[in-house]
Amino acid sequence: QVQLAESGGGLVQVGGSLRLSCAASGRTFSEYFIDWFRQAPGKERVFVASIDLSGDNTYYADSVKGRFTISRDNAKNTVYLQMNTLNPEDTAVYYCAAKRKAFVKAYDYWGQGTQVTVSS
After folding, report:
1. Among 25, 59, 63, 80, whose CB has the most other CB atoms within 10 angstroms?
2. Residue 34's closest CA among 67, 71, 82, 84?
3. Is the pLDDT of residue 105 over 90?
4. CA 44 → CA 1, 37, 79, distances in Å?
5. Under a CB-based contact definition with an 8 Å cutoff, are residues 43 and 91 in contact?
6. Quick one: how far is CA 59 from the chain centroid?
7. pLDDT tens, 28-87?
8. Cβ-contact 72, 51 below 8 angstroms
9. Which residue has the higher pLDDT, 27 or 102?
């Protein structure tokens, strides 16, 4: 059993930065691929970034490539999402999700989400 808890969201001005954290309970955290998603008001939840078990391989949606960085610290059971050069289109609830297998669409666990609001 793994429980995920996001934190680090908040209100930031255009061009600012935030670092989101996804903290996991359980001793098997390093066995899970972790992805970040976001859901803007009135829109579907969309993929943002993913990281493999070791942290050596990362993937990003085109909309955030070059601005966001995903990383993980397995010793701390935490995945981070560093978000730079934020713009109003980044306003959304951000969720982290965990899955044991890389190339499947179903996730085993989801967090409750953290709100990010970018003001102009």
Report:
1. 80
2. 71
3. no
4. 27, 10, 23
5. no
6. 11
7. 889 999 999 999 999 999 999 999 999 999 999 999 999 999 999 999 999 999 999 999
8. yes
9. 102
Beta strands in the chain (DSSP E): 4-7, 10-13, 18-24, 33-39, 46-51, 58-60, 68-73, 78-83, 92-99, 109-110, 114-119
Cα separation, 85 vs 96, whole angstroms: 21
Per-residue confidence (pLDDT) for residue 1, from 0 to 100: 82
Phi, psi of 76 (to 5 degrees): -105, 5
Query: 8: helix, coil or strand?
Result: coil
Q: What is the rounded end-to-end Cα distance, in angstroms, of the chain?
A: 41
DSSP code, position 75 = G
Q: Name the token pair of 115.
A: 């709100």
Q: For residue 100, give the DSSP letter.
A: S
Tell me which residue of 24, 20, 14 sits closest to 74, measured CA to CA. 24
Query: Strands 33-39 and 46-51, how do they pair?
Result: antiparallel
